[in-house]
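Mods, move this if it's the wrong board.
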Amino acid sequence: MEPIHTTKIIAKSEIDGCPLGFIFRGSGEDREKEEKYFPGMEAPLNHPHWFSGTYFYIIEDEEGKALENIAKHEATIVTKDFHLADYRVEASVRQFIFGSLPNCDDEYCLVARNGVIFRMQDLRRYYQFCLEGYDRVVLYMRWDYNRAVLAEERFPVDPSRYHHLAAEVKGNCIRCWCDDRLIFDVNDNTYSQGVAGIRTNSICRFRDICVSTWDEGYSVYLSNVESSQKKLAELRESIPKAVIWKDFDLSKLGTGRVHFFKQKVENDDSDAVLLMGSVKNKNGLSLFNLNAELLWEAQNPFDPQGSGVGEFKFADVDGDGIKEIVCLWGEGMSIQRSTDGGLVAKAPFPKPGPYSRGDVANINHIYPGDLEGTGYYQSIVIKDDSPAGGWTFWVYDTSLNLKWTRTLTLPAMGHNINLHDVDNDGREEILAGYHCYNGDGEKLWTVERCQYWDAIQGARHPDSVIAGEFIPGGEKRAAYAGGGEGFVLVDATNGKLLRKERVGHAQGVIVGKFDKDMPGHQILIGTRHQNYGILCYFSGDGEPIGRYQPDYISQGGPTVNWTGDGTEYVLLTTSKRAYGLWDRHGNYVMDFKELPLYPDASSAGVNFVSHPTDITGDPRDEFAIIYQGRLFIFTPDKQWERDKIYAPIRNERVIYPAISFERWVEKVLRKSDNLPAPCSKGE
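Not the wrong board. Structure tokens:
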């Protein structure tokens, strides 16, 4: 049976004209060579900052120029438009060796798979038609670690020549050719649309990469685009517009980290204040009111000429109802009053634990906690950190005297720990990775059988954890971004494993109310390391409820209570492609490039400061953006009109991993509603 005659080129490589050398390499946005010789394509497995180099080279052999993957390493080049549905993808493939190596994407990979992929939903969900090992050609449907064989044939792979692979997909019909011979004709409806290109995990070469379609296929594509744009326009029209509420001249405020907060713990109808991580552009802290008037400033308490503040948290540490600022500096940690910046206590970092690789403890995060059950945060917890995780944590009182310390056995902590009252005794416990300790330093549990889990690529630790009552009236649970183990959900009272989903290298975890129509809270897991950018949503019971990949960089972001109706969005600031607010269904509900701030989309700087929080007086969130030396606060364009408004409970003493628990309150009006009318871009 002959393939459908194609009439429209979607993307086609121009390898013959490409200069020899690296391709798809470097962290900058300058992709002139790639755009010229691989128009309409990108290499999504290569993070532009964390892993900017590919193993792709342009070489020349007896057949002419070719694209070569020079290592046993996962790599892919695909088109960019996910609306594509019916099309043909093809390439000539020369596979030199028959093996591969385990990696963050596939912990157990040993066999070479080189060929074309199509209808890719994200980097772990697609169809793949490939040469495999030394004697197979296979059509797979991949979903994470599940590779369903849709068709296969024994085929002697000849490493001395190119084999031409082509796959044609129309509706649920998939047909595949190898060296111009139709070998597979199957039906599968798992994926209905998505991008296409090549994927490799071993040493091989590619030529003649092409994605094309026919008249009817192109009409389906245009229909998909039109339907998607109409749905998105209706959704964006249904939510409040973002308007500028205030802006600040940063030349008068300074530089450094920025955070808006309220100084009182409860019943605070006062204005928010703005904390800057600098003093007149020097290292320290400065506090301003919303009229940009300086309230106080405080220098680095260890050395006025020393380091800047690395992290700060907000917590009432003495029970007076006023939050203190708990800080990390390069030289140590401090507690300072939020009312005047005065120093409450300071202490140098402790000596490193027994498994530290340096002479100084590497401390990146600080956690105020209520380990004694007083109702305020009389304990300060810090932990060591490294690319491989951390082993030791220390607990201090609010004079920053050391109370006790513990060093873990396997598995290590990840980069973020958490505190929560998991047993309802009024005292918080410490969730140090997969281990739970009470306020006296006694280990209560370790996650069931976690010491036997074998995913080690990208380090063997859980990167982040959040605990709480995810289902109303249910048991306390702990949700982990478990690194190579993926999403892990356990009973927080005893460590019993409830669910584990290997969705990729899970790095970020966020709990919020992402769907007002679902009971309880939802859990967002973001992936990293060879799968950057997949956002996976789960119910409070751990059931998968949604998944998408807005870019190939993100691992999630803070929750945003923008509408006040009980649904929160996730804020992404990792790329211009994803810059803005997203819902759990993968809808790009607010594109920040369209804000009344930028002259055009190309001027958007992908710059965001502070976590979204209530600044103007009603419980809905504002967000802040720096642009051309000014700090802009954006707010919803209209007052809230219903009797009840969603007012989530956030955790300023942790901040990340982001926690947002459900709460409704009586309607609260903004203190000032002198807002400009919503304007379109460029007005």
